[in-house]
Design a protein that fits this description.
With about 675 residues, chain A is an alpha+beta fold. Chain A is about 50% helix and about 10% strand. In chain A, a hairpin with a 4-residue loop joins strand 7 and strand 8. The chains are: A alpha+beta (about 675), B alpha/beta (about 300).
């Protein structure tokens, strides 16, 4: 080589061979280990794996190893994707975190872009080479061995592409994060924290507001943010059809943007930032108060959980959490344990938070008591499943008319809207959090805004207000799709009693289907609020399968008289249902420890009482009352034994001592003591 | 060659450099003196293009240094705290530097090997600190830079090696007109090497002097008289210091030596001696009050 080349001209290029080689020489072992792991868990594994006789099962098994999102064996791949790019990015840019190395590297005849591009290129090369090599080995084996029967070249290419994509994405995020810190430990910590921060912060904020504001509900779905951060994405399966060309291009663009932004930040960064936890002075308050706020919310959520929402304990949690967070952040920033001099910043924070808390607890914006006027409401969602609302309303999914009931419904009928508003007002007047189910009320206002609230509602307590809603056509249409379903679209109906070994009946004749559907619809429309909210046991099921093979599940309730009489008329009733006379005897027993909570003196070998009186057996089948199964001492397990033409059977149900029962049954119950 | 104008730099609340001005001529050896914490390393990291100044300008050969590979390619910086790639041998590091510096000289590299007598195959990070320093000089000299910036360069070297290293550097200055800036907290260390000295204290330059001028300008005279000391002993020159002990007078005078001597002769002294002045003394007398301040920290 000609070293003496004219000294006067100096070429500036973005890549310096010497720098790239220096990284390869120093960090090749990471790449080699990564490659070794990949070879072991993919081609090597495939070659030594004993194939099951069933070819399709083997196919499924091997193809799954080439899917980085699937659980099981390739969970290992997800771990590698979450660690190797981070390790490499930290290593190639570690010189930024050491004063000595920073001084020397920046005194050499490079500018920062050359340093950045060379190190990035070396890192990516080290990262992607093992993926390429593994892919080539897989391809070679695929062409030459029996493996071609299990997966195709396409599967390999897909694996290579997605692995490389995620490796690159994580690498570029890590590089970007590294520019903001001057400490290797902080670099690694920030990289992972950033992945969970957006989701985590929203969840924490929601959790805290819920404890502070009666009725608070969030309609900002944190689930969508998840896909923006690769580590979170790998934690949950995004779905196979998620990776279209557009998604891949978008992720590549994001990776490129992260790198470009990192290069720009590098240019701004001062060399003396080496050794600092936060490299930019203007970011230090962000870091400090960010840590303080997160620690405060975390402690608040924790203490609210422990204390069942006691306000003073929550405030104690806030003070403790924020103080710990603030002091920790100060210690990290000042690199000293003597941080008392920074108390002013904390006082400022406390002042701001106090104002905010006062604002929230005194409901300065009128959030808690805001109830829309009926004429401003377009429609209202009332139900337990905010995810469903999100999907239908925010993501604009078309409403499938025959969709299965997901726990909620939109109401557009004026009467229903008025009734729900009445319920809402009533809930505000008696803000009690008691045993109830969490319901969401989400109004869609006529100006397009949403007003969302969440309350714990006890159906019994608010029965008078819920009754007209539950008995309305809209409610029944949503909860029981059969009401609107065209019988011509029904392929078959299956009715069976889960308690007996009798085979269920399947209606496939269109005339029978039509008759049955009509009667079921009639029974559903006549069902009262009390019947709809009664505690029923799922004994008899009805499955209505439409022409698209989509089943909808119903329960045959005792109140469905029309359906039951139809089944009797048709002669199906006896061949599918449990008949009381088929039961030979029943036994009463205190539940064993594993069945209930250990509150009473329940001995494992508890007493058994046998009952053979027909009248009492029928009573045991039908006895019912409020479902308060919290006191295990009062629960009795009834086991029924019987025989039908289809064979012998037994089944269990739980009853409660306080339920209304005949005197002779009570006598039997007493024998258990 | 190196020109720093009104350079200021703060690290957070701490003002490390405050309107610093220095000027280093081509082919000269400039000693940057100052106690620990004066800001020498900070100033040097600006000269090497590592730090970006808050205000002011730093130019070498008329061009800014920061983010300017063209300047950095003829500049070698040997920091106090050395850094070499882990895993790299001397030979490999030499190859890396050779690819960076257009004026790299392999011939010199081989010629200098016996001077340092360290196996080129050895990994640098496994060498002792003193040996690493020697390697840094070896490689730095081979890059035949036009500017060398040395931060506390001979710390950790034994006296023999110090001498060798300085000889090599000074030889470069003579042969290649290299400009050298060297920092130290020890005045005596630099006395024999530098032709210019700048004293940095609390982030400001207290004084910047040409040592030859100082040495030819300031004189220490010891004069004894038989009788009374004549009151008007000197007509020209500035008396920086006067100490009288009976009929013996000790004078530190700034002025032309021959003229001063002839003036004193006219008063017919019994003894007239011109005593050698150390650089230390010159500074103390020259700077007066500040001189005493920095005396305690420099020596």
């Amino acid at each position: 080589m000609n070293w003496g080349e004219s000294a006067m001209t100096f070429k500036v290029s973005l890549f310096n061979k010497g720098l790239v080689i220096s990284d390869l020489k120093r960090f090749w072992w990471v790449s080699a280990l990564y490659g070794l792991f990949l070879i072991l868990i993919l081609p090597f594994h495939h070659m030594v794996q004993e194939m099951p006789a069933n070819n399709s099962w083997g196919k499924e098994m091997l193809q799954r190893t080439l899917d980085i999102f699937s659980v099981g064996q390739s969970g290992l791949q997800a771990i590698l994707i979450c660690t190797v790019p981070v390790i490499l990015a930290v290593l190639v840019f570690r010189y930024l975190h050491s004063r000595r190395a920073t001084a020397v590297m920046h005194s050499l005849p490079f500018n920062r872009y050359t340093l950045f591009c060379s190190h990035s290129a070396a890192g990516l090369l080290l990262l992607l080479l093992p993926v390429m090599v593994t892919g080539l080995v897989l391809m070679g084996l695929n062409v030459t061995t029996h493996l071609k029967e299990y997966y195709s070249l396409w599967h390999i290419l897909r694996w290579m592409g997605l692995t490389a994509l995620f490796d690159t994405l994580l690498f570029s995020i890590t590089v970007f994060v590294g520019m903001f810190t001057g400490s290797t430990v902080a670099h690694i910590a920030f990289t992972y924290i950033l992945q969970v921060l957006p989701t985590g912060f929203l969840v924490l904020l929601d959790e805290n507001l819920r404890n502070l504001l009666y009725g608070y509900a969030s309609i900002n779905n944190p689930g969508n943010l998840r896909h923006d951060f690769p580590v979170m994405m790998l934690a949950g399966y995004p779905g196979n059809d998620y990776f279209t060309t557009a998604t891949v291009a978008a992720y590549l663009l994001v990776a490129a943007l992260f790198l470009a932004a990192a290069a720009y930040v590098y240019k701004l960064r001062h060399a003396e930032a080496a050794g600092e936890v936060v490299a930019f002075a203007i970011m230090r308050p962000v870091f400090k108060y960010g840590v303080t706020a997160c620690a405060m919310l975390l402690a608040g959520a924790y203490f609210a959980g422990v204390s069942r929402g006691s306000f003073s304990i929550i405030v104690f949690g806030y003070i403790l959490g924020s103080l710990l967070g603030y002091v920790t952040a100060e210690i990290l920033l000042q690199k000293s344990l003597r941080v008392w001099s920074a108390y002013r910043g904390y006082l400022g924070y406390v002042a701001v938070i106090t104002v905010l808390l006062l604002g929230i607890t005194t409901d300065a914006t009128g959030y808690v008591h805001r109830v829309p006027e009926p004429e401003n409401v377009n429609k209202v969602y009332f139900g337990t499943n905010i995810g469903e609302w999100m999907r239908l309303e925010k993501l604009n999914n078309t409403i499938d008319q025959n969709a299965e009931y997901m726990g909620g419904n939109f109401f557009e009928d004026r009467n229903n809207i008025r009734n729900i508003l009445l319920l809402h007002r009533q809930l505000l007047q008696s803000p009690l959090t008691e045993n109830g189910i969490d319901y969401y009320i989400v109004y869609t206002l006529d100006n397009g805004d949403y007003l969302a609230r969440r309350y714990s509602i006890d159906e019994k307590r608010y029965a008078s207000l819920l009754k007209p809603v539950y008995e309305s056509l809209e409610y029944k249409q949503a909860r029981f799709p059969v009401v609107t379903q065209d019988p011509a679209n029904i392929k078959l109906i299956e009715i069976g009693d889960d308690r007996t070994p009798k085979r269920p009946v399947v209606l496939a004749d269109s005339a029978e289907i039509r008759e049955f559907a009509a009667r079921l619809k009639q029974d559903v429309l006549h069902a009262t609020f009390e019947e709809l909210t009664a505690n029923w046991e799922e004994n008899v099921h009805i499955n209505i399968v439409d022409v698209n093979e989509k089943p909808v599940h119903y329960n045959l309730r005792d109140s469905y008289r029309s359906v039951i009489s139809w089944l009797k008329d048709k002669g199906y009733y006896e061949s599918i249902m449990l008949l009381p006379e088929e039961i030979e005897y029943a036994t009463l027993e205190r539940p064993t420890v594993s069945e209930g909570y250990k509150t009473g003196p329940a001995s494992p070998a508890s007493k058994r009482v046998e009952i053979r009186e027909r009248r009492l057996i029928e009573e045991l089948l039908s006895v019912s009352g409020p479902d308060e199964f919290t006191n295990a001492g009062k629960i009795i397990t009834v086991t029924f034994y019987g025989r039908t033409i289809a064979g012998s059977f037994q089944f269990k149900r739980s009853i409660h001592r306080d339920w209304p029962a005949s005197a002779s049954l009570r006598e039997y119950m007493k024998q258990l003591d | 060659m190196i020109e720093v104008r009104e350079l200021s730099k703060s690290f957070g609340q701490f003002k490390a450099l405050d309107k610093v001005n220095i000027n280093v001529n081509k082919s000269s050896v400039y000693g940057l003196l100052g106690p620990n914490g004066a800001g020498k390393t900070t100033l040097i990291k600006h000269l090497a293009g590592v730090y970006r100044q808050d205000t002011g300008t730093i130019t070498i050969d008329g061009q800014p240094v920061y983010e300017n590979p063209a300047v950095k390619s003829f500049l070698v910086y040997i920091p106090d705290d050395l850094y070499f790639f882990s895993q790299y041998s001397i030979e490999e590091t030499a190859r890396f530097y050779a690819s960076l510096y257009p004026t790299w000289d392999w011939e010199r590299y081989r010629l200098l090997q016996p001077v340092f007598s360290i196996e080129p195959q050895r990994r640098i990070t496994r060498l002792s600190k003193g040996m690493q320093k020697q390697v840094a000089f070896w490689l730095g000299i081979c890059a035949t830079p036009r500017v060398m910036i040395l931060d506390e360069p001979v710390d950790g070297l034994d006296p023999v090696m110090r001498k060798k290293v300085w000889n090599l550097v000074l030889q470069d200055v003579a042969e290649h007109e290299t400009t050298v800036l060297v920092s130290s907290h020890n005045l005596r260390e630099l006395e024999d090497i530098c032709d210019h000295v700048g004293i940095l204290h609390n982030g400001t330059i207290l004084v910047e002097k040409d040592l030859d001028d100082l040495k030819t300008d300031v004189h220490k005279l010891q004069v004894a008289f038989a009788g009374e000391v004549p009151p008007d002993l000197l007509q020209t020159g500035t008396v920086l210091h006067r100490e009288q002990n009976g009929s013996i007078v000790l004078l530190i005078v700034k002025g032309d030596k021959d003229r001063l001597l002839s003036e004193v002769q006219r008063a017919n002294p019994v003894i007239l001696d011109v005593l050698p002045l150390t650089l230390e003394e010159i500074f103390i007398y020259e700077l007066g009050g500040i001189g005493y301040d920095i005396q305690s920290v420099l020596i």
